[in-house]
Amino acid sequence: MSLNNQPLIIKLGGAALSCGETLSKLFGAISTYQQQAQRPIVIVHGGGYLVDDLMNNLNLETVKKEGLRVTPYDQIPVIAGALAGTANKLLQGQAIKDGINAVGLSLADGGLCKVSELNPELGAVGKAEPGDSTVLQAILNVGALPIISSIGLTEQGQLMNVNADQAAVAVAGALDAELVLLSDVSGVLDGKGHLIPSLNQQQADDLIAGKVITDGMIVKVQAALEAANELGRPIEVATWRYPEKLTQLFSGKSIGTQFLPQ
C-alpha cells in the first residue's frame, strides 16, 4: 500500500462487533492516525452474527447459498434493522465513546452505490456498483468518520442486503480508494502456518487445489482477488485482532496478505 492522501476503506468483519475491547482499540488507532495524518478513512461493515441471533429469536430459518444469505423479501425489514440499525449504531456509539466524530450511513445515502437484485433465487440480496461519492466526500472533508452498513436501496426504493465484502468494493470504486478487508484471520497462511505476504490468481488457485486454502477462506480469497482486479490495485486482507499493528497499516505498511490484480 502506498502512503498518500487517497481514502482508505476498511471493511470490518461482523465478528469484531461482538468484541468491545478490540473495537475500542481499533477506533483508538483510527483516532491517533487521524490526528497524525490527513488520510480519510471510511468503514464499511456487515454484522452477520447479529442477524443470526435475531433470526433465531424470531424462529426464522437462516439459509445460505454459496456463502450468501438467502433473504426473503418479507424478512428484509428485520435484516435491515439489524444491520443498518443495531450494528451501525453500535459501531457509531463505540466510535463516539472513543472520541471520534462518526456518521452512520448506508449504501443508499447520496446515491453512493447503485444496487439491484443479484439473483431472484436469493430474494432481497443486492448487487452493488459504484455510484456518486459527492455526499461521502463532503462528510470526509469535515474530518468525520463515515461508518457505512451494507444495506442498500434499489431505484424503486426496495431495501436490499448486500454482502459486506462486495459492498466495500463498490464504495472503494465510488471513492477511487484503497481497500483493506479486516477479519478475524491474519491473512493467508502457507502449509507451515507462515503468513503469505502476497498472492495473485494463479498462486491462489494452486493453493486451493493443494488444499492449503480451504472452506470459508476460499470465498474471502476469491472476493479479494476480484476486488483487486475491479479496482486495479492490491487489496489487503488482515486481522483486527492486533490493533497495535493497525496504525502501521493505515500508514501504508502491509501487515497481512496483499492480493494482486492480474
Attribute tags:
38% helix; alpha/beta; Carbamate kinase; 262 residues
Record the SSE blueprint.
Blueprint: E1 8-12, H1 20-36, E2 41-45, H2 48-57, E3 64-65, E4 68-69, H3 76-97, E5 102-105, E6 113-117, E7 125-130, H4 134-141, E8 145-149, E9 151-153, E10 159-162, H5 164-175, E11 178-183, E12 198-199, H6 201-209, H7 216-231, E13 235-239, H8 246-250, E14 257-259
Helix pairs in contact: 1-3, 2-3, 5-7
The CATH H-level superfamily is Acetylglutamate kinase-like
Shape: globular
Sketch the major β-sheet: 8 strands, mixed
Radius of gyration computed on alpha carbons:
17 Å
Number of helices: 8
Query: Would you give the CATH topology?
Result: Carbamate kinase
Number of strands: 14
Counting structural domains, the number is 1
Order of helices and strands: EHEHEEHEEEHEEEHEEHHEHE
EC number: 2.7.2.8
Function: Catalyzes the ATP-dependent phosphorylation of N-acetyl-L-glutamate.
Pfam families: AA_kinase (PF00696)
Catalytic activity: N-acetyl-L-glutamate + ATP = N-acetyl-L-glutamyl 5-phosphate + ADP
